[in-house]
Amino acid sequence: MKKAAVVSSVEYMSETAVSVIFEQPDISKEKGIRDRCLMILMYDTGARVQEIIDIKLCDIRYGKTPTVTLNGKGGKVRTVPIMDKTVEHLKQYISLFHNLTGMNADGSLFYSVIQGKRNPLSNDCIGKFVNRYGESARQHCIEVPENVHPHLFRHSRAMHLYQRGMDLTLLSQWLGHAHLETTLIYAHADTEHKRRAIATATTPDDPMYGKLNPARFTVSDEETLKRLYGLK
Prior knowledge:
about 45% helix; globular
């Protein structure tokens, strides 16, 4: 028997949900400024949480085209651009948390102080405050999912860029994927989104309602997806 095709899916947030989460930290406190800056940078760069933890001050470059260097899986290094608004948040954060440190220093960009010593933020620490801000944001926006975790910012940024027209090949390089097939998950997810929109928009009184076949709008074959999105 022919093996049934498996449709990949990816969880991501709307741009509105992301914006509401960014508003949750109390920026009258230094820790709130730190948390907001970290989440904005994580979303803007599409970085994995460990890549955020590993960022050093010297990895940040301002200038005409601001960038941050990320150390990815398998020792792979990539440099990604950061938006001007993100730079503003970074400068505010650095002025508070690194006011006596030069930008060429190799100290951790984001840290906590334990017994008088600076230590890089842990994965658990970031996960806890991201989830807490997600719970708070959900009280103001129904689009915020129940379980907000750091990797959700990466998926959300990638999907938003893809929906705005970024080529899958470029997106794959930007995310630091070893194989293009890994990036196809966003094509799968976007096709499903379109299918649902078409099904929702077709009301019972529509002449096409009786002929509506949701399966027609589901593309799960990777070769077909590559052709549809200009990769073949």
